[in-house]
Q: What sequence folds into this?
């Protein structure tokens, strides 16, 4: 349709006689393609003269033409002319004027300011190869590859919409209402805003569009409708010439009071900057108190200040104040001039030729041949896109998408008789109170903690950040679905008294609601037929489908549910456990052996004998109590070592090494005795239970039926996650069904175990006087939360309230009120896994063993030293030993002598050594006397 409309306009415009349209510019070169340097270059300008943007842009364009012609370094010897065409705020007339402008063989066109006209004219310049430099068309879709000759010399609304999304995310709002003019610029801008908000988990809850020529009555009806909605954050994206009318109507409807948020795009600062005297226009400013708006950011340079001052001195200007579009219009002319200068210096040819596609047929009055193609258009376009210079609006340089680099905006807060800048936004660092040109010298940082703005005075003259939403004024309370349970009614159940439901979950929800700073009208609706527990997956799905606003109850937060709804902070922890039937085991006559494992008993007994033997060896030579006949000594070893178990040994140790070993051993015995006593006491006093199921792994590997609660997610979890056959899963209605199925067992049509969430299991065990037990550990970790529709702001506030309940202790009080009963979980089973093993005591045994070995080594070293001194001299030994004996007999006699020596008493050994020492000294003395006379 757009192409057909364009062709219709083309035919209509070219049908107008050339004498009526006229040509105001000179042809630069004919179709022969003359390469002579031109003396005059003509550019066109297309915009609405009598408009907020046009009144600022016109004097800026004329000033730019004057400055270019006065500058001898740009286009030397060439005069730059401009042809102005007024679009008169009409899409149709603007298209006609654009086509007339193209008849003047312009090398570039400045404008238009309207995105709608830019869409149509872009098709014309594509055909004629004339670059279109627009200082006012901000529609994001104009950057598409469909319009190669369209060059935007102002900021793209794509970035403005992302700035608004960052602003919404900064204040933690989740829904906005977009109010916009239903044209190309409005629709496409709001579409980008929706994409930007979605990346921040926010959304446009309503797109309120009105026609470009909407009446006050139409706008009033539109605002009345959006005022009935939940969101109170409005993004206003309209035209500068009609935007103030919306605020006037909103003021009458009471939509500029406390609790409302208005965010205006760059059109509003354009209007305010164009006001001749803000102080005298108090009525306008009263409409805008508390509004937040975005303005194109241009660096506050001396060049900019002098230019604005110069514009104000123009005599023929139509306004005394100028907005940012004047700066972009001025730089657009300079961009064309810089590019033309480079284009000509690089040998570019300024020539035009007829387009063979555009020709007149016989008898035609359309004069299609009057439209000619710029032969160097493609080269000139490339020159423009690589141009780089610093203009009044900042750095003029294009990126790969033909957008100006480093887009940035001032964020303004309207208040009093003017506006106050509360920060900046740039795609380099996001929201900041530091000017973007300063941040460009630092590494980019768009983290949440780095985002910062100054305080805002919101509508109603309040500094408190508005919540951004309220319950709509349509009389509908919050529809809350409550599961109509038939079991475990302590958690949630039907009640005859208002509000119609009761239970632990209801009390928690009501307590959290009461902590909110605003009233929440609500209505509880039972979900389920009351015969069996409802499906909780279905309950959550109904909330996601807008059949309910929320679900309150024992709803478990699991992955597949979080994909379709938002949950609050968990108010109760939960997890799946295995419940099994158990039987009591009577005490065994051999229970006294259970504290230790068999390995522990064997090692302990071996050490008793080992330590007894070591002490006997160390004491045998010193202590008379450890001497006697072999039978008597063996009895002494056994009696001594086992009597240490009760610290009742009667034999005293006299040697130092023996005492050292005994002290360490008695310490080991003390630890073993204490551990044995504690373990045996636990075994004999705690109820002992046994079961064939030890945990979830036993259930997975088995083939017997497993019970689950009706409506629980446990069935889906066991089938999908643990790959248990669906045929093994048995749904149970209530506690009586639990008890019956567990009691009968799998052989009699029951179940081998029940898998359910811990809160239910604890309550069930308490009600059955702890006759059933859980085995193993919780094999899932989750919690219960309240479910709300996706992106519901109430979910965030309720999460905060639940945390407050937890911190002040009210959450525990509610729990104790409904669920505090006998604690069966404290009575744990005692089985073989709790026996004391060697791993708990090997350190003690190691220390004792090392002490014994060291004592033995010291003892035998001492004995060998004594034996060396005790053994007779070799000569004496030879005299005593008969020569006929063999060497083997000598070695045997020597070992026997050693053993006999070891068996002697220490006192006897010392006496013998003393006598031998005296004899040796006397012998040495006599030998000395006999040798003296000689």
A:
């Amino acid at each position: 349709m757009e192409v057909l409309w364009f062709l219709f306009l083309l035919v209509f415009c070219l049908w107008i006689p050339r004498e009526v349209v006229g040509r105001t510019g000179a042809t630069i070169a004919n179709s022969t393609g003359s390469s002579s340097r031109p003396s005059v270059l003509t550019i066109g300008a297309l915009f609405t003269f009598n408009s907020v943007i046009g009144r600022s842009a016109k004097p800026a364009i004329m000033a730019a033409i004057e400055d270019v012609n006065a500058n001898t370094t740009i286009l030397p010897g060439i005069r730059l002319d401009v042809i102005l065409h007024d679009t008169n705020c009409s899409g149709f007339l603007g298209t006609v004027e654009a086509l007339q402008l193209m008849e003047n063989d312009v090398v570039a066109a400045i404008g238009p300011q309207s995105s709608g006209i830019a869409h149509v004219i872009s098709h014309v310049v594509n055909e004629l190869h004339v670059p279109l430099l627009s200082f006012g068309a901000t529609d994001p879709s104009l950057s598409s590859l469909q319009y190669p000759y369209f060059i935007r010399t102002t900021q793209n609304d794509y970035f403005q919409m992302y700035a608004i999304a960052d602003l919404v995310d900064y204040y933690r709002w989740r829904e906005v209402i977009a109010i916009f003019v239903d044209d190309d610029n409005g629709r496409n801008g709001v579409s980008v805003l929706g994409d930007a908000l979605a990346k921040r988990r926010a959304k446009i809850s309503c797109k309120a569009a009105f026609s470009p020529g909407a009446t006050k009555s139409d706008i009033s009806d539109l605002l009345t409708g959006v005022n009935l909605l939940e969101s109170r954050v409005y993004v206003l994206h309209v035209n500068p010439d009609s935007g103030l009318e919306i605020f006037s109507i909103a003021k009458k409807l009471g939509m500029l009071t406390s609790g409302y948020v208005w965010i205006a795009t760059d059109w509003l600062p354009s209007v305010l900057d164009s006001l001749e005297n803000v102080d005298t226009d108090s009525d306008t400013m009263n409409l805008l108190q508390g509004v937040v708006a975005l303005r194109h950011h241009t660096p506050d340079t001396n060049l900019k200040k002098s230019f604005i001052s110069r514009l104000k001195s123009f005599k023929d200007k139509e306004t005394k104040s100028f907005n940012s579009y004047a700066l972009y219009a001025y730089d657009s002319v300079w961009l064309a001039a810089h590019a033309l200068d480079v284009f000509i210096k690089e040998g570019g040819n300024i020539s035009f030729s007829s387009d063979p596609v555009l020709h007149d047929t016989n008898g035609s009055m359309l004069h299609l041949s009057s439209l000619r193609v710029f032969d160097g258009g493609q080269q000139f376009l490339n020159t423009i896109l690589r141009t780089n210079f610093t203009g009044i609006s900042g750095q003029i340089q294009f990126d790969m998408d033909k957008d100006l680099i480093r887009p940035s905006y001032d964020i303004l807060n309207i208040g009093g008789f003017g506006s106050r800048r509360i920060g900046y936004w740039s795609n380099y660092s996001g929201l900041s109170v530091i000017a973007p040109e300063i941040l460009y010298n630092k590494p980019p940082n768009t983290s949440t903690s780095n985002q910062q703005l100054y305080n805002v005075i919101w509508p109603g003259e309040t500094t408190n950040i508005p919540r951004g939403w309220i319950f709509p004024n349509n009389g509908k309370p919050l529809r809350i679905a409550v599961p109509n349970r038939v079991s475990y009614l302590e958690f949630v159940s039907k009640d005859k008294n208002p509000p119609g439901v009761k239970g632990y979950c209801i009390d928690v929800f009501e307590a959290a609601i009461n902590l909110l700073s605003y009233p929440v009208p609500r209505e509880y609706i039972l979900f389920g037929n009351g015969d069996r527990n409802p499906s909780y997956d279905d309950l959550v799905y109904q909330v996601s489908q807008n059949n309910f606003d929320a679900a309150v109850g024992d709803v478990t937060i699991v992955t597949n549910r979080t994909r379709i709804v938002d949950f609050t902070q968990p108010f109760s922890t939960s997890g799946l456990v295995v419940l099994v039937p158990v039987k009591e085991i009577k005490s065994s006559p051999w229970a006294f052996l259970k504290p230790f494992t068999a390995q522990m008993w064997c090692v302990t007994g071996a050490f008793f004998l080992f330590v007894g033997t070591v002490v006997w060896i160390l004491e045998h030579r010193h202590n008379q109590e450890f001497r006697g006949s072999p039978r008597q000594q063996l009895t002494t070893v056994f009696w001594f070592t086992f009597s240490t178990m009760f610290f009742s040994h009667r034999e005293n140790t006299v040697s130092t090494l023996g005492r050292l070993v005994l002290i360490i051993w008695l310490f080991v015995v003390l630890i073993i005795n204490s551990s044995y006593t504690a373990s045996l006491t636990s075994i004999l006093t705690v109820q002992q239970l046994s079961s064939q199921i030890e945990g979830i792994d036993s259930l997975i590997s088995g083939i017997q039926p497993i019970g689950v609660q009706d409506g629980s997610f446990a069935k889906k979890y066991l089938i999908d996650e643990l790959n248990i056959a669906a045929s093994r899963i048995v749904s149970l209605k209530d506690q009586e069904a639990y008890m019956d199925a567990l009691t009968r067992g799998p052989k009699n049509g029951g179940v081998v175990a029940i898998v359910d969430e811990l809160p239910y299991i604890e309550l069930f065990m308490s009600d059955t006087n702890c006759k059933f037990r859980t085995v193993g550990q919780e094999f899932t970790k989750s919690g219960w939360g309240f479910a709300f529709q996706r992106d519901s702001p109430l979910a965030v506030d309720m999460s905060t309230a639940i945390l407050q309940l937890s911190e002040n202790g009210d959450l525990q009080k509610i729990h104790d009120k409904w669920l505090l009963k006998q604690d069966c979980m404290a009575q744990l089973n005692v089985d073989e896994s709790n026996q004391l093993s060697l791993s708990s005591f090997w350190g003690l045994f190691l220390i004792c063993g090392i002490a014994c070995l060291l004592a033995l080594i010291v003892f035998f070293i001492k004995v060998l030293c004594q034996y060396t001194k005790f053994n007779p001299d070799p000569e004496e030994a030879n005299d005593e030993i008969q020569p006929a004996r063999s060497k083997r007999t000598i070695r045997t006699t020597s070992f026997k002598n050693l053993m006999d020596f070891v068996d002697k008493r220490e006192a006897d050994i010392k006496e013998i050594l003393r006598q031998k020492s005296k004899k040796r000294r006397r012998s040495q003395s006599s030998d000395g006397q006999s040798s003296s006379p000689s």
Q: What stands out?
A: Residues 279 and 307 are 24 Å apart (CA to CA). The first strand starts at residue 40 and ends at 47.
